[in-house]
Amino acid sequence: MSNIAGKAYAMNVITPMRWYKVWLNRLIFWAAQKVPNVLNGLLTLSLIHYARWVIIPRDKFPRLDPSQPKEDLEYSYMMFFSNFNGSWAQYVDSFTFAIPSGLDLFWKMNVRYPKSVPLTPFHDYIQHNQIDTSHYYNAYPMAASNDVKSAKTVKKALIDFNAASSNKTPEEFLEDYNKLLNQLQHDFGEMRPTPIVSLAAQAVKERYMESHAGTR
Amino acid sequence: MGNKSGNATALTVLSPIVNGIVDGQSFADITRERCLRIPIHEKSPLAKVPNTYLARLFILDNVFYESLPGSDSVFNFSEITSILSDSARKKALPRKDQLKSKYLVFSSNFHGDLDEYLTGMWEKWSFDDHGQQRDVRYIWEHCVSFEGVKDCAGFISYIKRCQLEATLFFNGSTDDSLQEQLKALYLKQEFSKFAAEHQGKSAADLQRAFKTFIERVQPENLSQPSWNPGQSTL
Q: Of A135, A150, A169, A210, which to mutate for an interface test with B (greatest number of B Cβ within 10 Å)?
């Protein structure tokens, strides 16, 4: 498994819901996008790169050929995919502490969902329904989601500053430069591979070395 | 609802794997092993697929049985009625589902249009597997009906048949092109170093150094210098 790629962790969770509640859950997701508070709550979890929920009605699992057996399911399913920074526990706990009601709203229709508070049953629920990733790719393993966002701010500020101030007198340049640094205090920071990045990469590399070229 | 958040796109693909065994190994296990052996970071084939932010592959073997305690309105009601009889009590158990196929799951977050992205997957996906070059067909080879995929148009159409719509796609990052994101990260890194290294310099020295810095980092040149997709070391 490779749930980690650089500073990002890939979470996959699949949970059942009763087929007749699918429309209601879809309505909740639709409404969540109309009520700013819910998504704003997610935005406060700035450790997320991208996340998504996918509801699969029980008769909508892809069937590509009559030779493929038709699924015969009691429940419909909801899949959750997330790309976040930090550890599993930090992430799951931050959900509980930042947006417990929003979280309960999204999973409310799911069979045996224990609610996000208290923590331990919620941890058990996620662990029970989580699937490990086989290959995980991250275009910027050394960067957290906050780095990507702050880098955008830095790039724009740098280009604007260069256009406006680079040809001023040295004294005026210095004054503007100091203002720029003040303005970017929260966005600066060098990025490096962290130990967990190296350990995860090492594990994948070893597995690759152990496998054989002739394997199917 | 949907797969778009600004210019960022969510792609969710469930491709059924053929039920069958060859030399004692199921097609699902062969596919899983192939996914596990894909090299990572800058050597991943996804580093070559333009505009991929984050993507993953895994096998959905089955769904889970909800055997844990939980709060659930329907079962809570059953628990009240279960005082009266054992059969009512047993009805409080969740049903057990079994998938009849195993699925190769591909989930990607990328910038731009789906057709363009899938064209990139078909044309650019390649990696070195102990000296052998593998293209995208190697991963999907044992999926149902994939033998009919002969060209890029066929691949696009196949993936679309396996695609699922996101109910909610949340973008906690930016929706800029990957080149734009990587250039910005490069500039953040370099400018942070510059600021730290040039503290206390005179105005004239600082201005001179800044001009040299700008000539070196070329902030508006997206192609170079920059970070490479999947770059894991400095």
A: A135
